[in-house]
Amino acid sequence: MQLNDDIKQWLQDAAAESGTYWRSHWKNHPNHGRVQNWLFFHQELRTEVQEMYRQAWQMTNQGVEMNISSLRRRFAAHAKTLESHGHFEDTMLFRFFTDHVTEFRRGAFLTLTQQHFAIEDASASISEALANAESPSSLFTPSSLFTQFGQYLELLLEHLRTEEAAILPLWLHIPLSLMSVLNRYINHGDTAPGILYTAPAPASVSAPTRAAADRPAIMRGNCCRTKWGDWKCCTSASER
User: For the segment 174-194, what is each residue's pLDDT rounded down to a tens digit?
Assistant: First the structure.
């Protein structure tokens, strides 16, 4: 869809607004209903991880006995939910803004996507630590888990702050005439061509690393981010 000049200007102006302001005052905006569920989910994520971090702290500093199996199941459910939420953002919400807002494509998009990958990696490390902790021969220590949860919480909180500051001014100010376009992105998501592709792992990669490499990598136009941590600009479909 070709956007008219008025809509383009509206979105560019929104991108330049203070996201910090709207993080605190989004309820004052007449379009606050658009972002309410998204922000509510973000708060649920904060609460959930802070609670698991508190439990790890109690186990480390107060000698509170922790049921590792229970914590592993709880974190696994959290990680699965977060992965689904990240997929929605990467392949639908972010894609809409990268397609229509130049400032977002040049600035926030790379930062937010890289943060998603960092959070995934930290989540995988905690999941592995919790799985190993149940082994009789494990060298697991409560303090190491506490440290990992602290790093994970820090990553998540920073990401949510950055994401909300970047997205809120845009989402709140989308003209009504463009909301139907955003809804098509959300409704059709990863069925649209060019959103995701699977990055093949080199033949020499070990099995655990290969599994990580086979996760979807993100595509935006002619730019792709591989699981190896780098971005490249592809000049033809065969390079993707």
Answer: 888 788 888 888 887 654 433
pTM of the full structure: 0.71
Quote the CA–CA distance of 218 and 167 in Å, as a whole number. Answer: 19
Residue carrying structure tokens 């689904």: 84
**Is-contact 226 219, C-beta < 8 A?**
no
Distance between CA atoms of residues 228 and 209, nearest Å? 10
* CB-based burial label for 112 (10 Å; 0-12, 13-18, 19+): buried
Calculate the alpha carbon distances from 119 to 22, 59, 114, 116, 151 in Å. Answer: 24, 23, 9, 5, 10
Over its C-alpha atoms, the chain yields an Rg (Å, rounded) of 20
Tokens representing 40 are 């509510």
